[in-house]
């Protein structure tokens, strides 16, 4: 199995993701998020947040970003992805990734709430870690 295939396998099984963007002050801004409802491939990853969040505001100004996810099972595995992140405006995508448990967090209790924000991350490269071994790969 290639490093990319191993990274994609890990992506589909872990539950916590660390997103980082570049803040307007030039420093990294990091937040932990849950993955999107569907995890199809490493070609594009989706995450939700609030439109009113500082993170979404910074992404709207600078699309350079990274995503990190990992598992602490017996064999430590982790993956760092570097690429571009954008705010999704397509209502079909927002509806696709809406989860019922989001209702309590939004006044309109729907994907149509203006504060419901989807982020689309498109990586261009990655680094996979497993058992003290590091391997870079392109996407």
List the helices and strands and how they pair.
Blueprint (H helix, E strand, L loop, with lengths): L2 H11 L3 E6 L5 E6 L11 E6 L3 H8 L2 E8 L5 E12 L2 H7 L18 E15 L2 E6 L1
Antiparallel strand pairs: 1-2, 1-4, 3-6, 4-5, 5-6, 6-7
Give a verbal description of the structure.
This protein is of the alpha+beta class and 139 residues long. The chain has helices at residues 3-13, 54-61, 91-97, and strands at residues 17-22, 28-33, 45-50, 64-71, 77-88, 116-130, 133-138. Strands 1, 2, 3, 4, 5, 6 and 7 form a 7-stranded antiparallel sheet that branches. The protein is globular, with a radius of gyration of 15 Å. The chain starts with a helix and ends with a strand.
Q: Write the element-wise H/E pattern from the N-terminal end onward.
A: HEEEHEEHEE
Specify the overall morphology: globular
**Total beta strands:** 7
Gyration radius, rounded: 15 Å
Instruction: Give the number of helices.
Output: 3
Low-confidence parts: none
Mean pLDDT level: 94
Coarse structural class:
alpha+beta
Q: Quick one: biggest sheet?
A: 7 strands, antiparallel
Assembly type of the shown chains? single chain
Query: Helix share of residues?
Result: 10-25%
Q: Gap between N and C termini, in Å?
A: 15 Å
Strand content: 35-45%
Features:
seven-stranded antiparallel beta sheet, 139 residues, 19% helix, alpha+beta
Please provide a brief summary of the model.
The chain has 139 residues and is of the alpha+beta class. The mean pLDDT is 94.
